[in-house]
Amino acid sequence: MPTKNPATGPADEVVEQLDALLFAFRGEMHRAMREADLPVSPMEVRVLLHVAHHPGCTAGDLARHSGRDKGQLTRLIQHLEEEGLLRREAHAEDRRAQCLFATEAGEALHARMRAERRALARGLLDRLDAQEQAQLAGLLGKLRAGRAP
After folding, report:
1. Is there a contact between 44 and 66 (Cβ–Cβ < 8 Å)?
2. Quick count: other Cβ atoms within 10 Å of Cβ 144?
3. Can you give the pLDDT at residue 4?
4. Quick check: pTM over 0.85?
5. Could you read off the pLDDT of 66-120 as tens digits, one per residue?
6. How many domains does the structure of the chain reveal?
7. In Å, how far are 8, 19, 62, 68, 145 from 5, measured between CA atoms?
8. H helix intervals, the chain
9. Residue 108 lies inside a defined structural domain of this protein
10. ∠ Cα 148 19 69 (to 5°)
11. Residue 13: inside a domain
12. 40-51: b or e for each residue (b if 16 or more CB lie within 10 Å)?
């Protein structure tokens, strides 16, 4: 069994805790997706979630948000479109860009995944009282505000 590297300070401990929580949370989301027998990958679900939250976004918007390569995103978008979960429309101002929208089936899948995420989050956060949850949300928002979108 590998030995654990001890954190050298509070920042290291925060990063280790966040990493462990996100790893476990994503693992549970992937398990839920396998059980739901979805026709898409976890990354494709993340793309769909972003598009559902930001209707009309472009592949460029997705690339900036996710840090992913535009080519990879184009393939993910194409598969989501083939599965009937996304649709593209011409951008009103930029002929090179296409706006992305979730279809009715995409919205339904988005609702299922959002419900699963909420259930997992409730299971995780029920260890904290309402005030602690609000404090955690505020601190995480403060950290997130310090990084690029």
Report:
1. no
2. 9
3. 60
4. no
5. 888 888 899 999 999 999 999 999 888 887 889 999 999 999 998 988 888 888 8
6. 1
7. 9, 14, 35, 30, 29
8. 10-36, 42-53, 59-66, 70-82, 104-125, 130-145
9. yes
10. 45
11. no
12. beeebbbbbbbb
